[in-house]
Amino acid sequence: MPEHTFTFPEGFLFGASTAAHQIEGNNVNSDWWVFENREGSGVEEPSGDAADSYHRWPEDMDLLRDLGFTAYRFSVEWARIEPEPGRFSRAALDHYRRMVEGAHARGLEPVVTLHHFTSPRWFSAAGGWTAPDAVQRFTAYAEAVAPILEGRVRYVATINEPNMIALMHTAIRQGGANVDFKLLEPDTALSEGLIAAHHAARDALRGVSSEFRVGWTVANQVYQPEPGAEEVCRAHAWPREDRFLEAARDDDWIGVQSYTRTRVSADGPLPVPDGAEKTLTGWEYHPAALGEAVRHTARVVGPRVPILVTENGIATADDTRRVAYTRGALAGLAAAMSEGADVRGYLHWSALDNYEWGSYRPTFGLIAVDRRTFTRTPKPSARWLGEISRTRALPE
User: Fold this and answer.
1) pTM confidence score
2) Given CA atoms 80, 81, 83, 89 in this order, what sign does their dihedral have?
3) Using CB atoms within 10 A as the burial measure, which of 40, 213, 304, 315 is most buried?
């Protein structure tokens, strides 16, 4: 037996994550479809067929099962379920019910996200999260989805990365996708609207079933102050991250989503250091970010709220770097858990090479997807991580 440094606890979830718009294809009723196909959007290419996972989800789940994973995080698509205000598609709901049941049939714990960046086009056209009836609309949608989840799903995420939604709103107002997110200020009204919608949907789902464990996921930026910049760093981080972590203090769990770090000087956020390795997204290669993100999240939300790592990964064409990055990230996670962080699972981003909000070039997937034939091919990193899932042992 190979030596190992850490054994993850019994019942710890190991798996991978996806998002509906990024893999399903032809999500024509969503606001992102409208945006990405609009002239002057700054988007490199539209999503189109994506990975055709709306039809090929059984194959995707078969691969995850065969690789040795025990969990699969995926989202249901609001724009498909409620294509017009108040009109819920029974066919779409049945589609996602079959996905939930398909996960269980394969021994995969389904972790279901209700909103992963995309909304129905009618919702956004009416004002989106700042509209007077936004909270009621989102809550009604959550209640419509609840019957297909009840008795089948434990972990439900209401909204994915609300802090990034607020930043994206500002970015789009300032001219499209090609802006520096580090320098943007989240829209305050939108942030408060998202928090209100999350709390309302959480309470509604709890009212349906006491078995639901409801939370949301936050994009952790791992803000690191330069010497003497501690106050500037805290002030910079609060509207961009900690506001949303604090809103989760009464939740059943919190999702940590970590990729890299952000260094902050007295003048604000700094660029990636000269000479540092960068990923295909231009982010600094910094696997230690995950352990730091888990520690920070645990400090902010408190010991009562357990953590799921719902996203962590790297955009790279070199799969050996994916293995190295993930090994480093898991080592940091293991250290944080050894120090007392209550972490219940690790879900890698992403299961598939997919549409990364404007381009297919950044490849995050454990499984490659041929854009023409849709053939799925597991990478060595998928087998490596699957073996950790089988044994729960982190190799030396």
Assistant:
1) 0.97
2) positive
3) 315
